[in-house]
Amino acid sequence: MTEQKRKESKLSGVTICPGIGFGKAQILDRELPVVRISLPPSQVEREQKRYRRAVKMVGSHLDQHVKEAHSASWLSATQILKVHRAILDDRHFHDAITERIAARGENAEWAISEEAGSMISRLEVTRDPYFQARAEDIRDLAGNILQALTGSPTEYKRGLSCPKEATVIFTGNLYPSTAVQARRYCARGFATESRLLASHAAILLKGFSIPAVAAVPGLRRAARDGDRVIVDGYNGKVILRPTAATRKEYQALRKSLEIPVVSPPLPPVESTTRDETVIHLAANIENPE
Q1: Which one is predicted more confidently, 153 or 165?
Q2: SS (H, E, C) 61-123
Q3: pLDDT in tens, 247-265
Q4: Cβ atoms 190, 214 nearer than 8 A
Q5: Which end of the chain is more exposed for a tag (fewer CB within 10 A), N or C?
């Protein structure tokens, strides 16, 4: 069924970052299948090295994100990404993985999936929004390592470039790495089914000023890659396959809400009093005293 034959659909959610974004839907989700493989003792050391290489690869990628955020003066993004670097540097977590590989003869993918799952369960059982958001961070970290394990270094480190057409990111999660990915992809909008509004990803999206809406039920089921969409970050709405009339309405709304940039007037060449006495102004900016 073509986009023209599929009707306009409006979905409701919760605002993360205000703004209005137009573009084509790009559904992003990492759901890598993980199977348990029993390893003979002779392969344990090699598997541990493979895991450590993947962690190093993720760390290098994360350092690149920190450097980019710092150079762009995104202070909140820099701090959040540094926190994720600290999580990645947790030796207890990595020791548990490598010990599990050795003691149980499990492949790295299965070991990290099980260990991360155990940590996530302990955080989510609290039903505290803060700890649930941290569980999302662990899930993101585990997903990054799994991706590094299954792909080549070239594939993993390959950065996204801005497409010729405007893009809106749809996802089921609120991972910090997905928020960074949306910025690197020059996304015009972001929508997710996740309700974790206290997540680091939500903070990043606000810092990146990407119009974003969360807690949109059935988002990925209702949309298809390439659908024309509108993200209404002011009212917490996602419009799929908008009609020409709807697009025109939102274009007018975005224009009316834009804050015009007004340059301050240039100072006069000379400052004079009413009796035409010239006033010379000076300031000491070299010495704070």
Answers
A1: 165
A2: HHHHHHHHHHHCCCHHHHHHHHHHHHHHCCHHHHHHHHHHHHHHCECHHHHHHHHHHHHHHHH
A3: 999 999 999 887 665 555 5
A4: no
A5: C
